[in-house]
Write a structure and sequence with these properties.
binds iron/sulfur cluster; TIM Barrel; 244 residues; 36% helix
Length: 244
Amino acid sequence: MTEKGRIHSWETCGTVDGPGIRFVLFMQGCPLRCLYCHNPDTWEISEGQEYTVEEIFKRILRNEPYFQASGGGVTVSGGEPGLQAQFVAELFKECKQHGIHTALDTSGSVGLKKILPILDWTDLVILDLKHGNLEKHRLLTGKTNEKIIEVAEYLNQSSIKFWLRHVLVPGYTDRKDDLEQLVLLLNKLERAEKLELIPYHKLGLHKWAALGLTNRLASVSPPSITKMEEVKNFLRSRTKLKIC
Ligand code: SF4
């Protein structure tokens, strides 16, 4: 348990990143630059604080009674956890050896080869699909989506449980052709347990300002409840996936 990782922060009672109550660890570092990112302070891998697996696992054990009683576990998020795959793999291995449920919240952007060692110890993957179109993916995140699709297709062939996430961003992911391209991708991922459609929000804008970064979505309003329902119904009519 000597592997070291750079950590942004953790949350002891997370309820949105996997089943039950969860210890959620946010890793430092991300290769993407999503326009809607609400954690730009996780981007730089040289920042955050270094901890060993043992140090983090001790903190997890302190909270174990809460999350085990709720059917929860540990989720590693970010940033992008795949950037520090050895650390996450070692942490998840320790969790599994103690009967703790593990979830990996990833964009898949580091590619399959890098995250494979983590998957050996992962019960659930929560995969963010940013855009179905390669060029629009680049506009939205700074990188194309081939590596993410490779991870998604691998998960679909594997026996690992996986959920999908997609952010509805007005003008970027909510147009008819954006949704059609998402449907094409979703229909190749029939083993996914569900797709969570998440509305774009502005909660992280103050972090961009604090870092001296310009946010190109600053003037974009979050989608309305009606628009969210309309898109969910469209996706339900075009895929067999559970959309929530
Ligand atoms: S993948 Fe996540 S952490 Fe990285 S830039 Fe996108 S939203 Fe931010």
